[in-house]
Amino acid sequence: MIRMIVAIVLAMLAGAGPLGAAPLIINSGDPSALPPFSLPAYTRALEQGGRAIHVPVVMSKDEVLYVLDEQFIAADHSLSDAHADTGNQLEASFAGNYTSTELDAYTWPTGLRPPYLREVLSVVALFEQETGEPVTLFIELKNGWQHRPFGRELVPVAMAELSSFSYPENRRRLIVGSYDADSVTELSKQSAYPPEIVAIVQLIGANDGSQVMVREPTGWGGYNFDWMVTRHGLKALSSYVDMLGLSATTLSSSTSSYRWSTYLEDSQLLGVGVLALDADAMLGEAPRPKTIIKTIVNDLATELTPAAILTAYDRIVRQALDPNASAPEPGAEPGGSEIEDILRRLNTPGANYDNLPTPQ
User: What angle do CA 62, 222, 239 make, to 5 degrees?
Assistant: First the structure.
């Protein structure tokens, strides 16, 4: 009962509620030429008004945490062909197949390497110190299931690193979650943060193995999320999570009879906020004018507003939700000079991040 009351308060703080209440808008990565989830991309998002950012976290074989979308590894055939550990029967695109030495040698075409989690946390802490404005972090723990067969656990390593940073006056909100149900269950047991700081989220994906795989007699198969989009599943999840991450397209393609608005209503009755994951996927091809985004925001909020919306176009979405907000500044696609300028302001020459502030 206490968790439910706390969850309702958290949902209200995050913007869940009747139509018209403002959801939390989370930047999911820079949609321009900057490498997504790089330090320059995060810096640019914060400087352009973003106050909530998506931080996808992966772990190497030797338990070093990186901020990385593993699709980049999948696209780099030289890395996957040269270093894949094929003995574990998992795809070569997973960061858990590589050591930190191998991942440190991996770079984007711009010459930047994927940052460590502690570097992203340091940049956010530095921004907060300079501006006095809190930033919400959506920490997505990726592929914890891949490490378990080898005796490695992602959740305790990640929580230890997150706890090395101070959160003054309980003002920074952490949203920590995963598609991996076992990782989320472990989070609910291990989180040492008070509920004013952290919200635990179970992300719900497709059953095709693109997010979570499970061992089967014939090898690896996709995890089945369907139980999570039933009333019984919602009730079970509400006992240990504060939010559920779900795309309207995933809901419509599942075997559930839920409609998006009904799911929002039932989740709110249970004291659980909803993180809308598919705003960008619903936009189609670029360009993405504000009128289209406003339509999608209205579609996502047919009867109740989700607690949060994940989008790479957070500036435009914020403007669509709040007509009184200042319009986003038009700007050219960033090139090499902008990356270099941001790196200079980060005090990091070239692709070297060693001069960033250290955790408290």
Answer: 85
Task: Write down the domain spans for the chain.
Answer: 2-53+134-345
Structure tokens at 28: 């999911």
pTM here? Answer: 0.81
Residue with tokens 């598609």: 179
Output the pLDDT for position 158: 94
Q: CA 314, CA 29: separation in Å to the nearest integer?
A: 9
| Prior bond of 287 cis (ω within 30°) | yes
Q: How far apart are CA 353 and CA 247, in angstroms?
A: 35
Phi, psi (deg, nearest 5) at residue 181: -60, -35
Query: Do 203 and 178 touch, CB atoms closer than 8 A?
Result: yes
Residue 307: which pLDDT band, with cuts at 50, 70 and 90? confident
What would the two tokens of residue 249 be? 């397209």
CATH of domain 2-53+134-345: 3.20.20
How many whole angstroms separate alpha carbon 150 and alpha carbon 123? 32
Reported confidence tier of residue 18, pLDDT bands at 50, 70, 90: very low
Report, as an integer, the average pLDDT of 205-230: 86
- What single letter denotes the amino acid at residue 353? Y
**Comparing 107 with 147, which gets the higher pLDDT?**
147
Q: Angle at the Cα of 269 (from 155 to 245), degrees rounded to 5?
A: 35
